[in-house]
Write a structure and sequence with these properties.
The protein is of the alpha/beta class. The protein contains 12 helices and 11 strands. The radius of gyration is 18 Å and the shape is globular. The two termini are 26 Å apart. The model has no long low-confidence stretch (mean pLDDT 94).
Length: 334
């Protein structure tokens, strides 16, 4: 069976909101053990995602453009992330083990286990405190998505507002990228402003990734990457995880099919080479059933494989997309 690596899902944060008896082993979501085993999952990245606005109870602060998340909310969000990390550890079982290094991933694979890589989606939880990055690393976090959809202590999010989109990383953000390089943590530019992306390209000494982002040429939402960004990411030795969220695949969402995923993969290869595309499904960050006849979870990955072959993507390129490109980056950084 082909083994595949998924660089992003929101399953853990969704499980925190679900029924008490649900777990990674068995739940109503897209990602669970049966689905991962059926898909041949080698590595599943589990995002500890904290939406800052859900932790706000102080008076809103406005910076003239948009609401800002206050420090108390970020502190509460940080504690929620620590709870999610503990949950991942509690969910370990014979077939699923937390992996904190490239060598542990390979060993788990030899033992026919799925590796769980713990990540943080929303660097705002650092709240300007350097020691939090060190603590997250000690707790097993190996990737941080620098922003989500709000300005935070690191930088600015993707936006249709050009004044926001062109903003780069803040001084603390630049410092944290350098420290993540030193620790051996993946810098993730998905959700980041264009200016922040280019700062990461300039400052990082290690390959960086866009864990779940598609191509802006085929779907013009600001969450996707321009062709120049794709090429820069490839030149840096990084990878871009194909996002299965229909909104990022085709502007007319009702017409989305699995073939659109293949179109984005082929465009990445055409513009930046076959060493760039990987998989970053974003499963459980959206509801698959919203689109008729679309994917229901990782158990449908064979449909994606067939769509890519139909698109003209070769077996060698498919192997790189499925796991090879992500493994290369994991080896280089972790």
């Amino acid at each position: 069976m082909r083994r595949f690596i998924d660089m992003h899902c929101d399953t853990i944060s969704e499980l925190q909101k679900s029924e008490a008896d649900e777990s990674i082993l068995k739940n109503h979501l897209c990602i669970h053990m049966e689905a991962m085993e059926r898909a041949g999952t080698m590595v599943q990245f589990f995002a500890c995602f904290a939406d800052g606005k859900e932790y706000v109870d102080e008076k809103p602060v406005w910076n003239g453009r948009h609401r800002q998340i206050g420090p108390q909310a970020w502190d509460r969000a940080y504690r929620a992330v620590l709870d999610m990390i503990r949950r991942i550890r509690q969910e370990e079982q014979e077939g699923l083990r937390l992996a904190q290094s490239y060598e542990e991933i390979l060993e788990n694979d030899r033992q026919h286990r799925i590796s769980a890589v713990a990540t943080v989606e929303e660097g705002g939880v650092l709240n300007g405190q350097r020691e939090r990055l060190e603590e997250l690393y000690r707790q097993g976090i190996r990737l941080i998505t620098l922003t989500w959809n709000y300005e935070n202590c690191l930088g600015y999010p993707n936006s249709r507002d050009g004044a926001v989109m062109n903003q780069g990383l803040k001084p603390f953000g630049l410092e944290m990228v350098e420290r993540m390089n030193a620790l051996g943590m993946l810098v993730d530019v998905s959700h980041l402003s264009d200016g922040g992306f280019w700062d990461c390209i300039r400052v990082s000494r290690s390959p960086i990734i866009a864990s779940h982002s598609n191509t802006r040429s085929l779907c013009g939402v600001p969450r996707n990457l321009t062709d120049d960004m794709l090429r820069a990411l490839a030149e840096k030795g990084g990878a871009a995880g194909l996002n299965f969220y229909p909104v990022f695949l085709r502007e007319k969402v009702s017409e989305v099919t699995v073939q659109d995923i293949a179109r984005h993969a082929a465009h990445m290869i055409s513009e930046a080479g076959e060493d760039l595309p990987a998989i970053g499904t974003d499963f459980d960050g959206f509801v698959c059933k919203d689109v008729t006849g679309y994917l229901s979870g990782p158990g449908d990955m064979e449909l994606v494989w067939e769509a890519m072959k139909k698109q003209g993507i070769t077996e060698r390129q498919l192997d790189k997309i499925w796991s090879g490109n992500a493994l290369r980056v994991l080896k280089a950084v972790l």
